[in-house]
Design brief:
The chain is mostly helical and 174 residues long. It is built from 7 helices and no strands. Helix 3 packs antiparallel against helix 4. The radius of gyration is 17 Å and the shape is elongated. It starts with 5 loop residues before the first helix and ends with a helix.
């Protein structure tokens, strides 16, 4: 799938999940907790990344080369759990399988070309997606709240409670 369709299809996925959802209080609570962990990872990663200017290798980037995408996946799992629908979970899995492998390849190719030597040293020690427990690699970046703002992570931080409110409403509406 072309990566330019990832965000618009993500909004469509949200609507599909809402339509398929059958949330109950326990699914909302457990799914919400999982989704918050994903957003925490995204916030941590956003504070380290200085897009196209420097290679982020500190913080969560010392555990996985794609902590933003891992955080998105954890958030999506949380939303699927909150939705309490196997069909919503399947739609979410299809979305991630369709977009994220190619997006991660594109980004790896871009970073490899932009930062050849640092990327090679980092990629040699840090896994592409599933995190390693102990940090590895150069760990050169540091967390800055200004980066979180500049990377517009506030959009995801706002979208998550909005989706939670919609799922909560869905639990009480027929």
């Amino acid at each position: 799938m072309p990566s330019r369709l990832r965000v618009p299809c993500g909004y469509l996925l949200g609507l599909v999940v809402l339509a398929l959802a059958h949330p109950v209080p326990t699914s909302l609570a457990s799914g919400g907790a999982i989704a918050l962990l994903g957003e925490a990872l995204r916030l941590w990663a956003s504070g380290h990344i200085d897009k196209t200017r420097a290679l982020a290798t500190g913080g969560p980037y010392a555990h996985t080369r794609n902590p933003l995408y891992l955080g998105s996946l954890v958030m999506a799992v949380g939303v699927a759990v909150a939705a309490a629908s196997p069909w919503a979970a399947l739609a979410t899995a299809v979305y991630f399988a369709a977009f994220y492998p190619s997006v991660m390849r594109e980004e790896a190719d871009f970073l490899r070309a932009r930062f050849p030597e640092p990327y090679a040293a980092w990629a040699d020690r840090v896994p592409l997606f599933l995190p390693r427990l102990a940090p590895a690699g150069p760990r050169a970046s540091t967390f800055q709240w200004e980066r979180v703002r500049r990377n517009r992570e506030w959009r995801t931080a706002i979208a998550l409670p909005a989706l939670a409110a919609l799922l909560w409403a869905r639990a009480w509406l027929p």
